[in-house]
């Protein structure tokens, strides 16, 4: 069975409905990968006082990606949210997945050379989707040239340079944290995640997403929308010629937009770095204004194509991931020659949703 991927132009048309995303819950993961259902790892944005993205590369602490974590923390957060919520229905949806997976799906019709492999399973009428790390990709990352490893580090180091543990109103001139971060490295074990609910066309969606920082103190409650204060941090090559410009618009802006739009994060702050890893400028983009920056440019991406494609894809998924059984896993694959997305049942069934989730309790 397969899902044909047509040329982008064929996805033009009316926007499918996309509900305003709402935060259901949030959680923190500490240096030891222990999960806490609180905001201890939430960081606050504070403009960078340094430029060098390569400082601290030798002290970079990278999460051990050989330990598969599947969607465990997201599932635990859902169990926790259902126990706490007055309306446990809030933590139910047709599709449950990571935001990063939805970003990949949205970008599929206008992206080539970026294969992906997903696993899906249906349990109590909800489809859970996780990413199946591809062997090829893992190998490539390990052998990455040092320059690319440093660039990847630079993305995390920019987060260190732009964030503090306290809200901006509590920062004083000469605050020791400001001095400290000039030389701090990065630790990708530490994460702050939110769980949001929305709806694309007919399918309600719950997504887990890592949030880089907040602009202000987090307020929760019926009337407040904590999503509106979150900021996505990014780095990109300083734009010095038309090739840089076109690659920024074609690839970077599409991902910036898709990633933040999906979960209702309204601002993206991008540090533009030169080849020495120095941030030469910092620019803020409003997520909702990004599409306007590429509008009417021939051959570029369009939100409507991303959303209509994702909508059709999820509708199709509902018709093929049919067996309601967590021991049945479907493998969904997008790869060369980039004509279609294929689906097949995994030959060695291995549930990827945890038993404790199936049993309805956190351990
Ligand atoms: P950039 O933001 O500069 O790309 P995120 O921006 O999603 O919060 O991720 C933070 C950093 O993680 C990225 O910095 C990049 O360095 C690294 N990163 C994220 N996704 C990646 C991927 N698919 N491959 C390699 N590195 C990635
Ligand atoms: Mg992030
Ligand atoms: Mg980021």
Automatic annotation (TrEMBL):
One of its GO terms (biological process) is nuclear-transcribed mRNA catabolic process. It is found in: Nucleus. The keyword Transcription regulation does not apply. This is Decapping nuclease. GO terms for cellular component: cytosol; nucleus. Coiled coil: none annotated. GO terms for molecular function: metal ion binding; mRNA 5'-diphosphatase activity; nuclease activity; nucleotide binding; RNA binding. Belongs to the DXO/Dom3Z family. Its cofactor is a divalent metal cation. Keywords: Hydrolase, Metal-binding, Nuclease, Nucleotide-binding, Nucleus, RNA-binding. Decapping enzyme for NAD-capped RNAs: specifically hydrolyzes the nicotinamide adenine dinucleotide (NAD) cap from a subset of RNAs by removing the entire NAD moiety from the 5'-end of an NAD-capped RNA. It catalyses: a 5'-end (N(7)-methyl 5'-triphosphoguanosine)-ribonucleoside-ribonucleotide in mRNA + H2O = a (N(7)-methyl 5'-triphosphoguanosine)-nucleoside + a 5'-end phospho-ribonucleoside in mRNA + H(+); a 5'-end triphospho-ribonucleoside in mRNA + H2O = a 5'-end phospho-ribonucleoside in mRNA + diphosphate + H(+); a 5'-end NAD(+)-phospho-ribonucleoside in mRNA + H2O = a 5'-end phospho-ribonucleoside in mRNA + NAD(+) + H(+). Its main location: nucleus. Residues 20-357 form the RAI1-like domain. Its EC number is 3.6.1.-.
């Amino acid at each position: 069975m397969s899902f044909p991927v047509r040329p982008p132009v064929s996805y033009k048309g009316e926007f499918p409905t996309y509900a305003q995303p709402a935060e259901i819950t949030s959680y923190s993961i500490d240096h030891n990968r222990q999960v806490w259902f609180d905001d201890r790892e939430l960081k606050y944005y504070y403009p960078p006082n340094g430029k060098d993205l390569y400082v601290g590369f030798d002290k970079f602490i990278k999460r051990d990606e050989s330990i598969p974590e599947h969607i465990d923390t997201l599932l635990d957060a859902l169990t926790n949210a259902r126990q706490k919520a007055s309306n446990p229905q809030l933590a139910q949806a047709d599709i449950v997945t990571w935001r990063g997976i939805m970003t990949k799906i949205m970008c599929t019709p206008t992206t080539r050379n970026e294969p992906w492999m997903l696993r899906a399973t249906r349990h109590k009428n909800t489809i859970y989707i996780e990413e199946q790390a591809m062997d090829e990709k893992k190998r490539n990352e390990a052998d990455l040239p040092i320059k690319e490893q440093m660039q990847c580090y630079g993305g995390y180091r920019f987060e260190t340079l732009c964030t503090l543990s306290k809200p901006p109103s509590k920062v004083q001139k000469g605050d020791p944290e400001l001095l400290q971060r000039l030389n701090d490295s990065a630790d990708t074990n530490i994460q702050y995640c939110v769980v949001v609910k929305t709806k694309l066309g007919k399918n309600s969606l719950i997504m887990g997403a890592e949030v880089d920082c907040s602009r202000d103190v987090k307020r929760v409650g019926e009337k407040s929308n904590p999503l509106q204060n979150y900021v996505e941090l990014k780095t990109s090559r300083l734009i010095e010629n038309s090739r840089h410009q076109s690659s920024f618009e074609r690839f970077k802006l599409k991902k910036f937009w898709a990633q933040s739009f999906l979960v209702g994060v309204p601002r993206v702050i991008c540090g533009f770095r030169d080849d020495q890893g120095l941030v030469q400028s910092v620019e803020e983009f409003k997520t909702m204004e990004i599409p306007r920056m590429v509008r009417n440019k021939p051959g570029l991406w369009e939100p409507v194509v991303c959303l209509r494609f994702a909508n059709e894809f999820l509708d199709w998924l509902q018709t093929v991931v049919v067996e309601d059984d967590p021991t049945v896993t479907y493998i969904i694959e997008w790869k060369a020659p980039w004509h279609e997305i294929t689906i097949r049942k995994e030959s060695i069934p291995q549930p990827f949703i945890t038993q404790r989730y199936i049993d309805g309790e956190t351990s």
